[in-house]
Amino acid sequence: MAGGWTRDGAVLDQIHDTVIDGVLTARARMPTGPGRETCLECGDPIPAARRRAMPGAVTCVSCQTGRDARIVTGGINRRGSKDSQLR
């Protein structure tokens, strides 16, 4: 279903692009490298299970939870309508 001047399937293309952008953003945020044995923020030891599950982890679970809560996502307005741009 398309509306206005768009071609058929344009909405699905927008959804697909939004999902791909989200996946790429999440992959870019994943830690890389050797990681640490102690938390970068609080100094507590990072459990071995976390280091195995998340290679490159530099924070403990509680500090990472706080970091994740502060992440601000600024998406791309793919619709381009006047109403969505005024928000």
From TrEMBL:
Gene Ontology biological process terms, A to Z: positive regulation of secondary metabolite biosynthetic process
Entry keywords, A to Z: Metal-binding, Zinc, Zinc-finger
Chain positions of all zinc fingers (dksA C4-type): 39-63
Molecular function per GO: zinc ion binding
Domain Zinc finger DksA/TraR C4-type stretches: 37-67
Superkingdom of this protein's organism: Bacteria
Classification via Pfam families: zf-dskA_traR (PF01258)
InterPro entries: Znf_DskA_TraR
NCBIfam families: PRK11019.1 (NF008243)
PANTHER family: DNAK SUPPRESSOR PROTEIN, FELS-2 PROPHAGE PROTEIN
Name of this chain's protein: Phage/conjugal plasmid C-4 type zinc finger TraR family protein
Organism ancestry: Bacteria, Pseudomonadati, Pseudomonadota, Alphaproteobacteria, Caulobacterales
